[in-house]
Amino acid sequence: MTLLSKSMDNGCFSSPRHEAFPAGLRVLVVDDDPTWLRILEKMLKKCLYEVTTCCLATEALKKLRERKDAYDIVISDVNMPDMDGFKLLEQVGLEMDLPVIMMSVDGETSRVMKGVQHGACDYLLKPIRMKELRNIWQHVFRKRMHEARDFESHEGFEALHLLMNGSDQSDDGNIFAVEEITSIKKRKDADSKHDDKEFGDHSPTKKARVVWSVDLHQKFVKAVNQIGFDKVGPKKILDLMSVPWLTRENVASHLQKYRLYLSRLQKENDQKSSSSGVKHSDSPSKDPGSFSFLNTASNKQQSDVVIDSFSHSDESLLQMDAPSHEGDLKRILSEPTTEKRRSSPKSSQMSLNQPFSSVESSEASHAIFDCTIQTQYSWGEFPKGPLKEEQKTTVQLEDSFSQLPLHGTRHPIQVDQSQSIASINSNPSITEEEVAPSLDTKTLYAGYKSDYVSPVSSMGTVVDTFPKQSKSLIPNDQSPEPIFTSNLGLKTDGFDVDCISDLDFYQRNLLLCGDAASAPLEEDLNFFLLQTEWYNMNFGQQNIDISECYDPRLVAEAPGYFYDSADYSSVDQSLFIA
DNA sequence: TAATTAATAT
DNA sequence: AATATTAATT
């Protein structure tokens, strides 16, 4: 609060009331298309911002020069007759150093990149929605915060921290505080370098790292399954994935990781089954070294076995480990650990790269998130032939599901995830670095693909900001049953098919299908599930442990807040970063 | 060679 | 830990 108010008082905004903070933000909108100008103006006003419009870049520049501090932020189209949007961006950066948001109809990577690299704080794709506009104030705030930080050093932050951790959750008006903080942290790394003067449009600095987002990973898995476990190779996978920017090396690397993950799972599974007495007719002894899970057309017979093993492994991962580490968890949470935090020199890399990669992936595959049932095949041409067989598989799966302890497991998974997230958020020790890169990234995400991004961010947000929500939507504990059933039905219709690499995926798909039909809220929920596999792969048991410390009820709250979206809050990223 | 994989580096 | 990069292997 302190810091926040301070920066606000700094005279940035015309409106004096802190409560109204984002209200009164002075936005200059530049677009040669009067229609868009009107639309934007309307939307921005809805956000209670003070809007000034102009249809020429030169005019905008003139206005800005006239009164350098008459505006807080600039939103400019990229394509304009009189002056290139990038040029304007450059000028603004040079002369008044206001945050600039670029927008355009196409999301061509190079352009987006150019914009961002040259200092645009965000890049929105038209049509722009309220969602995207609501958050723009964050850029302003961030910047200010940044500036303030220079002299204030740490003290301010410390104070903020305390405040946050102590009471933010209960505060109603505290949304800002939370977000601020997060954003602040992030920015620290992110903005340090965007003074590149040289534009041209080529300063790839360094190659972006590929971020294996959930959907990208899903594509990957689909491809793997299609090809057949025994025949997989990076090249083939790459081809099937048809993600242009991805390289064979990228895939190879990911494949390596994936194999590691699978073998780990199998190991766990074996362990489990042997010790616990649960047994499946016979474990997939056949391929010890390999990962039997793939029930591709070629080896479907194994599918049930595979699935079985997976479910078990899941269980073990999620359920077994958690309890054992309780002590550790608590320790982690309670102690302001300082251990490994100070190491975020490369965060900048993240903020820049992430957005792009995500863009790409979303372009390539909105599939899962967007809707429902079908898009899934959109990106790749699947051999429809095996479908029949696939369905069969599905059925089998169904069986195994109902029989196995899966139901119980299912939800716990969700809980765990969200909980862990929550924990990250609230945990004082983690805050600084871990969360850092998020704001930029998330905002960018929003612009590109809000569908994809928002769910994630929302998770974090939920916890902090929206404590109350409909619990009914989420089956807290054992209610998973119904969901499953319905999902199964849907799925059988035409969905699941190829992507059944493992249990998690399978489940995810099921849920997706079922929910797809339902409400948006559920969509978000699905996201949780969707991430499960990916999550496990990346974090394994660790996080789960942590999550144990939290109250499951938190999860229930999550959905509600999803809608709000207004904040692609920082927390989201923590999930990825960890 | 080109692709794959294990190992190693960042 | 996640991805990249290298180097050996096929």
Automatic annotation (TrEMBL):
NCBIfam families: myb_SHAQKYF. The modification 4-aspartylphosphate is found at D77. Keywords: Nucleus, Phosphoprotein, Transcription, Transcription regulation, Two-component regulatory system. Residues 323-342 have a biased composition (Basic and acidic residues). It is found in: Nucleus. The keyword Phosphoprotein applies. Residues 26-141 form the Response regulatory domain. Pfam families: Myb_DNA-binding, Response_reg. InterPro entries: ARR-like, CheY-like_superfamily, Homeodomain-like_sf, Myb_dom_plants, SANT/Myb, Sig_transdc_resp-reg_receiver. GO terms for cellular component: nucleus. This is Response regulatory domain-containing protein. Residues 345-357 have a biased composition (Polar residues). SMART domains: REC (SM00448). One of its GO terms (biological process) is phosphorelay signal transduction system. GO terms for molecular function: DNA binding. It comes from Vigna angularis var. angularis. Residues 269-295, 319-357 are annotated as: Disordered.
